[in-house]
Every structure is written in structure tokens, then in C-alpha cells.
Design a protein that fits this description.
mainly alpha; Sodium/glucose cotransporter
Length: about 625
């Protein structure tokens, strides 16, 4: 099993009962896709957004489940193992708290546009002139690049996870290929309906898997065993400017890993990740399944509530699972990992724990749950990518007057093409960490500045948006190849700076968008920010129109939400470690945050205070 030459034992292979459970799950998923085919085939809105007919809590569960995948789980286990409780702050690399921004205010702003995709939303902001057209095209291109990137990211860990358990002797890529084809079948058939139903089933399976792993970890380990395997201070959530975790005796190779990753100045790193995360979050949801779930809600108010559910679903069960796997790995696999020396491979901890510490039946359920986690992310990503191709390219530029079902049939065709592209690029992927770094530190910053400016500055135009997105995306594709040793923070800041400079220069060199477009956007979305010239023009026509004065309240709720979220991910870790004092402290913070948000955010949502009539 391990890179050092240790092989998985025959008794660790899945039993015929476990294989039956996994096969039954896959058959069920294809049956679900077939069952909703007729409903999904009604029109494009049905196929890509489930007709905007599903309750917010169902979409929230589906959205949260879509964010749980094998690759991310492997990466989080690695971060927990190396950096301990402090590693929970490394979740900001994505950043994990972007869902808090969507919950507090951005989900509502996005949903007010009432469109089908993020690219179509560009018309709400920039109109239908040349600038709007360029912005529209730039989002489509970015969406397709990011979709293929995320599919590639999912491919390698899927095969690496599945291969050790089956007796067929196939390569990891072969297992990934088979599972992708099964997932692709029901994704093609049922569109967004398949995505949501699969996500609901996946949530049940992954929650069951998390509970089983947690119980096994707590029964088979003691706090003394865990602390004997890690350096002093590993279990402390808080940190200073430097990391101060000394792995030199427990696992010397990790000292070099920490140095190579540039994480020794941990306080500085987390500060940079926080600043970066705020900018990324203020940009709004990226043009993938995140924005598709927001747009599929029934109204703007439900878009905010959907993100609340998404935050809870995507964190609590997942980190119970991650903590259980991490603790079992520390106690029982440290010797094997230490034996790998400089080539230590933490991505093997997850399959090793499942293989050797779960009984027959439970192993099959957890394997099905983790495969379901992959499938959930996979089908959501495919559905969002195909929505851009069919709605924003084919329908806009090729044929705009076809019957509704014509576009659904093209959805089938392009789903197959996107799946094939994801598989093809997946074969070229080196490992989970390399793709994670590229997505988080190269692709994401290409999106940030143009999308922050589009919300908050009236003068920003479609030309500036297009130029910034194009320059950022090109930089994300070129710079990592030219300077492969560039530190993560430097890579992120380089691409961010290029995108920002090009955005602002091109914007100021071109005319602002038409006044009627800007006034329509302001009246519809009602953002806060630098909109006073447009507000004055709107009030000249509608004197009773009030500005959005919620900026201070929204920022307060965001900060409370981030603290609340950290408590949510740290509580399961301390439960597994049986550190009951810290469990009580984190639950107290969790409850306090929930009470504050109830009065400062939820009650306003419920009453419609400060929201437009259509939000209620």
C-alpha cells in the first residue's frame, strides 16, 4: 500500500459483501438519472437548474455535499497530520469561509439577477454592448478552464483511493475511469435533478461513514497514543508568528516539508491567507457549481438560507471523518510513513485506514460514501460547465431560436465531451497537492480583482473585466510553467497584481457602461460600495429609493460567521482527541456565534428587513 513497498494484505481487500454494496450504489445512481430524465429534459432551466423549483434546504444539502470530495479529504488529512489543530486555518487557502460571505449578503445579490449561469449574469452588470460581450466571453472561458481543472483534480485521488481495495490488479487510473463513466451516465441523463438527488444520498452515506470512522478512532486510540506520535503543541489551535512544531524527532522528513512549503512563518502565512480569502470571497462565487446552486434557488432570500445549510453540511460530518482518519493514521501508520523518508506520502493514510480498521459491510458503506463524495463533486462540476457551453456559447452564438428540448439534447452531447476532457487531463495529473496548489494559488487569483470591482465600483466596465480575467487566466496557465519553484503566496500575488493592473488600466482607458445599464443593475441588485453617482441618478427619478446601508452590519456578520465556522471544524477534532475541555469551549463559541447571527442576520432574513420585496 505504501510508497516504501508495504503492500496491502489480502484480508484488507474488500469482501464480496462490500463490493455488492458499492455496485448497488452505482446501479442506484444510474437508476436515479434514468428516473428523472423526463423531468430534466423539459427545458434548459430544468436540466441545468432543476427548474428553480427545489426548496432551499435541499439545495443547501446538495451544495454542501458537492464540496466534499476524496481529493480534498486526502489534502485535509495531510494538513491535519502535519500542522495539527493549527492546520484548520489552512482551510482558508480555498478559502473555506467564502460560503459565509454568500450566506450573509452575496448569495442574495447573485440571485437577484434571475439568470441561468454566471456568464449570463454579466449582462445584468455590463449590458449587451461590446464591453458586456467581452465580459461575458471571459467568464465562459474561465469557467471552462476551471471546470476541466477541477475534474482533473478529482481524477487522480479517486483512482489512488480505490485501487488498493479491489483484487483485479488494475491501475488506479483504470478504477478512476470506470467510476467517472458511471457518474457520467446519470449526470448526462438527469442534469441538475440527478446532481441534487445524488448529493442527498451522498450526504447520508458520508455522514454514516464519518460516524463509523469516528467511533472506530475513539475506541482504538487513546489521547496518550496520539500525543506520543506528534510534537508538543500539535493539538493547540492557536499560534504565534512562527509555527514552532518540531518534527525532527517524530518524523524528520516533515521538517523539510514544512520548509519547502514555506509554512515556517505560520502567523504571516495565515494573515496572508485571510487577506487573500477576503478578496476571493468578496468576488462572489466562481463560475462553477457554486453559482449554479445559488441561481437554482427559488428567490434571493432562499439563496442566503441555502448557503447557511451548505456551510453546516459541508463541514461538520466531513471534519469528523477527517479527524478520525488522521488520528488512526498518527497512531498506527507513523512507522510506515517515517520509513518513506523524504518521499513520505500522506495521501495513502485514507485508504490504509479504511482497508485495515473497518469490518466487512462497514468498509463497503464507507467506500460507497467516499466514492459518492467524488461523484457528487464530479456531476456538479460537469453540469455547471455544460450550462456555460450550451447556454452561453451554443444558444447565444449558434442557434438562439431552437425548441427547448433541443438545448437539452445538446446538454447530453456536451456532457460527454466535458467528461472526456476531464478524464484526459486527469491522466496527466501528478498528485492531489500539485493540482490543489495550482487551483488555489494560480487559477483563483485570476478571478478575484475583476469580480470584486464589478460589485463595488460603478465605474468598472466590461472592457476592464474582460482584460483582467484574460490576463489573470493566461498568467495562471503560463507562470507556473515558467517559474515552477515560485512560492505559493508569491504566485498568488503575482497573478493577482497582473489581473488588477490590467483591469484598472483598461477600464480607465475606455468609456463607462451606459447609464441605463448601471441604474438597472443598482436598482435590481442594490449593492453597497462606491455607487453614489449612480444612486444620485436613480434618486432623481425615484426619490424614495434608499441606499444599501448594510455594509457595517454585513461585515460584522461575516466576522462572526468566520469565528463560528472555525469552531464548527475544530469541535469534531477535539471530540476525536477526547479533549473534553476544548470540546466544551468550541461548542460554547459555536452556540454564541449562532445566537448572534440569529439576531443580526437570520431575523432580518425572516422579516425581510433591509431586503427587496422579491427576497421574501
Amino acid at each position: 500500500m505504501f510508497a516504501s513497498g508495504t503492500r496491502i494484505r489480502d484480508k484488507d481487500l474488500v469482501h464480496v459483501i462490500d463490493i455488492a454494496i458499492i455496485v448497488a450504489y452505482m446501479i442506484l445512481m444510474v437508476a436515479v438519472g434514468a428516473w428523472v430524465t423526463k423531468k430534466a429534459a423539459k427545458d434548459s432551466e430544468s436540466y441545468f437548474l432543476a427548474g428553480k423549483s427545489l426548496p432551499w434546504w435541499i439545495i443547501g444539502v446538495a451544495h454542501g455535499s458537492s464540496g466534499v470530495d476524496i481529493g480534498g479529504t486526502m489534502w485535509f488529512v495531510t494538513m491535519l497530520y502535519i500542522y495539527g489543530a493549527k492546520g484548520l486555518f489552512l482551510l482558508w487557502i480555498w478559502p473555506l469561509f467564502n460560503v459565509v460571505f454568500r450566506m450573509v449578503y452575496l448569495g442574495t445579490w447573485v440571485r437577484r439577477s434571475n439568470v441561468l449561469t454566471g456568464a449570463e449574469w454579466m449582462r445584468t452588470r455590463f449590458g449587451k454592448g461590446l464591453g458586456g460581450e467581452l465580459a461575458y466571453v471571459s467568464v465562459v472561458v474561465y469557467a471552462l478552464v476551471s471546470v476541466v481543472g477541477f475534474l482533473s483534480y478529482a481524477f487522480k485521488p479517486l483512482g489512488k483511493f480505490a485501487a488498493p481495495f479491489f483484487p483485479f490488479g488494475w491501475s488506479p487510473d483504470t478504477y478512476a475511469l470506470i467510476i467517472m463513466l458511471v457518474a457520467g451516465a446519470y449526470c448526462v441523463l438527469g442534469g441538475m435533478y440527478s446532481v441534487v438527488l445524488n448529493d442527498l444520498i451522498q450526504f447520508g452515506l458520508i455522514t454514516l461513514a464519518a460516524v463509523i470512522i469516528a467511533v472506530v478512532a475513539m475506541m482504538k486510540t487513546t489521547p496518550d497514543q496520539v500525543m506520543a506520535a506528534v510534537p508538543a503543541g500539535w493539538d493547540n489551535l492557536f499560534f504565534g508568528w512562527r509555527l514552532d512544531l518540531d518534527w525532527s524527532e517524530k518524523m524528520p522528513a516533515l521538517t523539510k516539508v514544512i520548509h519547502d512549503q514555506g509554512y515556517e512563518l505560520f502567523g504571516f502565512l495565515i494573515l496572508m491567507l485571510f487577506i487573500k480569502g477576503v478578496l476571493v470571497s468578496m468576488a462572489g462565487p466562481t463560475p462553477n457549481y457554486a453559482i449554479q446552486h445559488v441561481l437554482s434557488t427559488r428567490n434571493p432570500r432562499e439563496a442566503a438560507l441555502e448557503n447557511l445549510v451548505m456551510c453546516i453540511v459541508s463541514l461538520a460530518p466531513r471534519f469528523l471523518l477527517i479527524a478520525g482518519i488522521g488520528v488512526l493514521g498518527m497512531v498506527f501508520f507513523s512507522d510506515q510513513l517515517r520509513g518513506m523518508g523524504a518521499k513520505v506520502d500522506f495521501e495513502q493514510v485514507l485508504p490504509a485506514v479504511v482497508a485495515q480498521y473497518l469490518p466487512v459491510g462497514c468498509k463497503g458503506l464507507i467506500l460507497a460514501g467516499l466514492i459518492a463524495a467524488f461523484m457528487s463533486t464530479f456531476v456538479s462540476t460537469v453540469n455547471s460547465g455544460v450550462a456555460y457551453i450550451v447556454n452561453d456559447i451554443y444558444r447565444r452564438y449558434v442557434r438562439s431560436d431552437a425548441p427547448a428540448r433541443h438545448y437539452v439534447r445538446w446538454g447530453y452531447v456536451w456532457s460527454i465531451v466535458v467528461i472526456a476532457a476531464g478524464i484526459g487531463f486527469g491522466y496527466t495529473t501528478l498528485n492531489v497537492h500539485s493540482v490543489t496548489k495550482w487551483v488555489a494559488n494560480a487559477l483563483v487569483p485570476a478571478f478575484v480583482v475583476p469580480n470584486v470591482l464589478k460589485w463595488h465600483w460603478w465605474r468598472f466596465n466590461g472592457h476592464g473585466f474582460w482584460a483582467g480575467m484574460a490576463a489573470g487566466t493566461a498568467s495562471a496557465l503560463v507562470i507556473p510553467g515558467l517559474w515552477p519553484t515560485l512560492k505559493d503566496v508569491n504566485l498568488f500575488m503575482s497573478i493577482l497584481a497582473i489581473s488588477a493592473i490590467v483591469s484598472v488600466v483598461v477600464c480607465l482607458a475606455t468609456a463607462p457602461e451606459p447609464e441605463d445599464v448601471l441604474k438597472s443593475f443598482y436598482r435590481t441588485v442594490r449593492p453597497w460600495g462606491f455607487w453614489k453617482p449612480i444612486l444620485d441618478k436613480c434618486r432623481a427619478e425615484t426619490p424614495q429609493l434608499e441606499p444599501n446601508r448594510d455594509c457595517g452590519r454585513d461585515w460584522f456578520n461575516v466576522l462572526v460567521g468566520i469565528v463560528w465556522q472555525i469552531a464548527m471544524v475544530s469541535a469534531p477534532v477535539y471530540v476525536i482527541l477526547k479533549q473534553w475541555g476544548r470540546v466544551g469551549a468550541t461548542f460554547a463559541v459555536l452556540v454564541a456565534g449562532a445566537v448572534i447571527l440569529k439576531f443580526t442576520w437570520f431575523d432580518r432574513i425572516a422579516k425581510g428587513d433591509g431586503y427587496l420585496p422579491q427576497d421574501r
